[in-house]
Amino acid sequence: MGIRSACSTRAGVRQKPSRMGQEIERKFLVLNEDWKAGAVGTFFHQGYLNRHPQRSVRVRVKGQQAFLTIKGMVSEISRFEYEYPVPLADAEHMLKELCEPPTLEKTRYLAEYEGMCWEIDEFHGDNAGLVVAEIELENEEQPFAKPPWLGEEVSQDPRYLNINLSQHPYRQW
Q1: Could you give the CA distance from residue 77 to residue 55 in angstroms, rounded to a whole number?
Q2: Are 145 and 113 in contact (CB under 8 A)?
Q3: How far apart are CA 44 and CA 60, in angstroms?
């Protein structure tokens, strides 16, 4: 199970659903590594210029690309999201000098299941041992097939938000 049509990429970036400025995602724990066969991972390093429960500004290095992302909460599974490319050197400097410590590191894998693209995040550092799968949807009621490696849904548990994992790592729970 590798990257196929639902996980198609352009310049190494997965194409998100077409709803501009809004991210609707469901998040699940992962039961095993059955998803990993053929999946391709990209290392992420990210930090936050501000951490607010309702809105945040994130700096992310994704492989050799970098982005500044502004998010604002709409509901437990929906957020306004605006993402802009920034020069890699600028992002690395922001991560080191401007982001609130600690920063977050993970490897993100893309895996397709029944025509839908899943992002599987395998966390490192103080979040090692945590593996979470996310699916982005067109709307909050969109049906989707659940892969057999999917565990408990944690979409409504704020501990699993990346912004919270950076402050309260998985290993400290």
Answers
A1: 14
A2: yes
A3: 7
CB count within 10 Å of CB 15 equals: 11
Residue 20 burial by Cβ neighbours in a 10 Å radius (0-12, 13-18, 19+): exposed
Tens-place pLDDT, residues 130-173: 999 999 999 999 999 999 999 999 999 999 999 999 999 999 99
Residues pairing with 30 in the sheet: 150
At 8, is the pLDDT very low, low, confident or very high (cuts 50, 70, 90)? low
Q: For residue 75, what pLDDT is reported? A: 87
CA 26, CA 99: separation in Å to the nearest integer? Answer: 27
Structure token pair of residue 157? 């548990």
Q: What are phi and psi of 94, to 5 degrees?
A: -60, -40
Look-up: residue for tokens 């609707």?
24
Q: Which residues are catalytic?
A: 48
Return all residues near 132 (Cβ < 8 A) that are at least 6 apart: 27, 28, 29, 30, 120, 121, 123, 154, 160
User: pTM score, two decimals?
Assistant: 0.87
Amino acid occupying residue 12? G
> How deeply is 147 buried, as exposed, middle or buried, from its count of CB atoms within 10 A (0-12, 13-18, 19+)?
buried
Structure tokens belonging to residue 5: 């049509």
